[in-house]
Amino acid sequence: MGFIRKIVFLIVTISIVLLGIKINNLLFQEPPLPVLGNVWWGPGAESKVDTSIRPFKINVPQKVLDDLEQRLRKARQFTPPLENIQQQYGINTDLLAEITEFWKTRYDWTQRERWLNEYPQFKTNIQGLDIHFLHVKPAETAGRKVLPLLMLHGWPGSFREFYGVIPLLTQPQEGKDFVFELIIASLPGFGFSQPASKPGLGALECAVVFKNLMQRLGFEKYYLHGGDWGAVIVTAMSSLYPNSVLGMHSTMCFDDSPSATIKTILGSFYPSFIIDKKYENKIYPISATFERMLLEFGYMHLQATKPDTVGVGLNDSPVGLAAYILEKYITWTNEDGKTLPDGGLKQKYSYVELLDTVMIYWVTNSITTSMRIYAESLNKASMEFAGITVNVPTACTRYLNDIGYQPDSLLTSRYRNLVHTADIENGGHFAAFEVPKAFANDVWIAVEKMENSYKSKKVSK
Fold it and tell me: What global pTM score does this model have?
């Protein structure tokens, strides 16, 4: 019997060890980088296209504007809001009525179109898709190093959200020996960038598109900035093409790996192990965080499963489109806006600025194609990629009114060369749009740290 017990004990021990190895591999072992080729996303079979860089100006046909005017004028009467309710059930229709009246009587697209065209815009065909981008060179260099910076937006944003930071980043700053050359691109299917004709163009695949765009423009090495889906894309670029990426700045750094999830859960028993007391309420109690996710992320499930169905109504009704988009600008700018009659919108934006974004989606008929990025990205491949590390110099900036938060203790597991983090009080999800000066200042600080790290490495050699 003693011999049998030893055999059983040995088998059990080996089983436990093997199980532990398997769990370790699942939770802590980094998955391999995905192999992503130059897929043809355009219509039909791959064919020869014009790969030149073509100047572009926004020029919306008058018939599109006339149609919009009729639809706004003929919009059905809104359902009255419930008594003593502001934005808790979605955008308040009294607020929507005010914005719609402004749209009909005071918003001038012709003037806004001229303003948007003040910065040089271009298109070029990448993998079968015409990609739209701004290319703004510095006002002067005066012996300074010129650093290319690719900037990518997310949903429901657009290239428009970076207009306030363009002069702040392309003007030389006192004490800085570099200045930025900006490439601000529209994601495929967003605004004036052509949508994919085939399924499968998610955030990972967009990383290939924008790597190819930067190559087309002649940039061998460059910096990146991304927020929202743009953050996911620049993170993928940083992992996939570390020899091209000098550094990454993101306003939505996150680690969704199983190990990060376990740490977060364990931190609920002793929060200070994970997060500074000052920001503890951004994560804990977990039940409150989960409640916020249930309340605010229903749109994500719809867009990840049935974007084309949702898009039909939004493409047909301009006031429906405005309601759907602007509701996100209320809750994602500051959750407290739900309790205010104007949603807090006027604290950070003007109606003109907000309607610029709505108009870009309307005149390009791109709300459906923009929402498809959820369906193409929230899948097994993307979930596996969430655990892949980033080794390029990284800056992670958190705006404290944003919808999510992860402290340094979680981020350092994924971003192995985290050179800069910041917690900025006055800002939310659309940081560049909301607080352009604070945003631009943070970019300058972060990139200066990255540049100094490169200089110190050269000196040490």
Answer: 0.92
